[in-house]
Records
---
Amino acid sequence: MAWDTERTKQLLLDAATVEFSTHGLAGARVDRIAAEAGVNKERIYQYFGKKDDFFGIVLARQLAAVMDAVPITGAGVEAVVDYADRVFEYHTRHPELARLVFWEGLERTEPTALDTRAAGANNKVERLRQALPTLTDANARELLATILTLCDGWQVLRAMDRVYTGTIERDAARNAARKASVLLAIESFTRAMI
């Protein structure tokens, strides 16, 4: 029987996404990833290199997916709020992405796939400036960072949510309330910048 390399890689990437987003780079265990994928751990080193490299590949893959899945469309403040809404929803469906980004910030000194991410960020900034022609480059960058910080933070900072709201439950009503607050803040911030 032929070895299905692509399937094996996919199994390892899926297992690693869960492991790294749950335990971070330092806490993740290659043995657990291999066991979850049902693959010999030597395949990890063969396909992806060291654990640090593997973390970078997993994060870069997740970042590429969100860049493609959530474009900025339309014009005006409404386009920015719509983009933030869709980013929030994407992160709600894929909380592992925000967790991976937070672990990266805690455990690495250099961003993963910096050149690729910078190019993606530049495209988003350009698209924000097309949607809001009076927006400066610096303000577009701040706006983008604010949107991503607010949407990512909701997925990761559960303890803070409990302190301020008394709950860590993430039912539809709580998600809707938090999203409404995030979108109101982004709308206000956007209007103040233009």
---
Amino acid sequence: MCCIDATAIVSYVGREIDDDVLDAVTRILGRDGVRGLTITAVADEAKLSRVTLHRRGSSLDDFVIGVLARASDDLRASLWPALTGNGDAASRLQIALRTLCDVAERHAAVLTALYAEPSRPIPGRPGRTTSFEFIEPFERLLRDGMIDGSLRVEDPESEAILVANTVCWTYLHMRRAHRWPAGRTADKIITLATAHLISSKISTP
């Protein structure tokens, strides 16, 4: 499966956040949740001084956007084969949702800790938000399904929000709270989330 190449720097409108700092933020979120995320905690975890961190001009909100953007960039890169590959949209949607589960697994600490956080605009990406970045690829697949007749969709935007959120958050809950195996969890949730969308004209994989 395709995955983004981890870069040394994530840039937002002149601000630069080292990948090591984002790794530190991820560890804090996984261990202590949002309440544990402070400038002091990030500095200590990244083995930097608070002065150094302040001089770089990044706030806690920048760190939250940074780790969420890193997760969404991973998702978008990993989804590329499903978005551009052969096959009807229904089949590609199921592949894409399985990819979403894989990405959720990789970024579970961040996504779980930030579950209740509101979406945020992403600096340097006009019109993009941390939520929109996750949802847009699935809306595109649903629109493809409307065209090729493999999916029953009336409102692709709201349907994409519903399906992507259902799969992502239910997957994380079943994996972390109930310890279900990854493959079984993905299979059952994707079947449940897409049953109302699949056209009777096709057979799903």
---
Amino acid sequence: MSRRFLGLDPGLRATGWGVIDAEDNRLRWVADGIVRSDESLSLAERLAQLFQGVAEVIGTYRPDAAAVEETFVNRNPTSTLKLGQARGAIMAAAGTAGIPVAEYTPNSIKKTVVGAGHSGKDQVSFMVRRLLPGCLALTPDAADALAVAICHAQNNGGLARRIALAESAR
């Protein structure tokens, strides 16, 4: 049974997205790109642009599940807060569409795709292209989003995580 996964790499200026199909252990690239927000607009308007852009991607490609990279805390608290707000807008777009959303740390994504949790962007981009022949991934944000989708597909769409959580709750 084939499943379609949407990976999202949140950003206020540009949110990367990538769509893949997974059947058994085979992965196939479907599409990727970025949703941009207009820096001349208010924060609320920019978040609305991200929400609408991701909603359009969802409407076009109809994924079964989505995954987003977790926010890391950087040195600038204002930037971290804005990134969190952008992340919330894109997660809300998936939630509004009724799509389950999983979250993965940057290190777990890199470990799944490259084999090492502290890999660089170039290594991630290289492996994404190797795992998904024909993919465009013209921007680092799109490549990162495809890596998120690959991570989610390799984790059975979060099934393994849900089973582990259910067993630990017993």
---
Amino acid sequence: MEGIRDGDCVTWAEGSATSNALIAETLEAVGHLRELKLWFGILTAPQNFAREGWQAGTYAGFHAARDLLRRGMAQAHPVPYSQLARFLTSGDWQVSVVVASGRREAGRLRIGPHLGAINPCIAAARLVVVQPTPALPEVAGTLFDCDRLVVELPAAASPLPEVTAGAPDAVELAMAGHVAALVPDGATIELGMGRSVDAVASGLSRRARLGLHTGVMTDAARSLMDSGAVTNSQKAFEPGRSVATGLLGSRELYDFAHANLQIVLHPADMTHSATILHGEPCFVSINSALEVDLSGQVNSESVAGRYVGAVGGLPDFHHAAVSHRNGRGIIVLPSQAASGRSRIVARLSGPATLPASVADFVVTEHGIAALRDRSADERRSALIAIADPAHRRELAA
């Protein structure tokens, strides 16, 4: 870590691509520096970014990042995922050092199974630091040429981050049935992040000849491949293979993806490309949200001033779906938050991540609101009908 110096902007390959121990080791090694910028994406374990003279930034407020944002140890930048590479290779947050779990292989570089914006970051960086870790999955797309200075640390026993989802509850199972009715056999699907999307994916297990082209592949996607629902036989881009920019799930997911010729990772500028997605015979995006208002606007970022979500890839995939000649953009959310607050709202409490002009399908446990080409009054009625019954009268007032 001696090559990291004052004024650097350091980023870690996100999610499953960097062990939490390596992130902590990096922070400890640079603790003496007075001025640093530190960028992170999906972060699964608490870390200490609090140093005078340091700035920490992220595009996401979920998992461990949520507490860092709440405590003022990091700032949120609402950057769409497809623009993340541009953000990190130019301007104030231009990356100079990249850190990742990985290793050198015969003159090439292998990193952990999440690409995102890391390829252009590596190409622009002055220094790349990798640390071998046991059971690093060898997934197509994670081995590439690198002409930057690469420092390989001694191997460590720290595992890659894992995230597991619980079994779907009754609300999620109801949503799963509604979503399944909207996804035709042979469609190429995108599955957003979050418990709700993982849960509704279970309802697609009886679909046939599905393709997968997504941002982050989870255990839900692995289950669809295991069930035979996802075969990728109808896809135009990477036929026969599930496409993602990263993996995030259990050890079983990483083992499943290891040397699996049916899985390939691509950088975000390809996975989130509307041009590529429009080449699919049918494309359906499935994403979660924090709130939907009665005009069809979607907030996936913050509630009551707290940044707890992300812009992420939602606009990229949803816009590609609704502008596709044979596409559908689906937003799923339980009708109520755990607090009892309605998630179908008269007015958003945070930003409009998606405008009303691209509204398509909204699904709660109470049904489906089909909003495309509907009038303002028709949208209002359709959304009130799928709100929790306890809030419908208030919403209709």
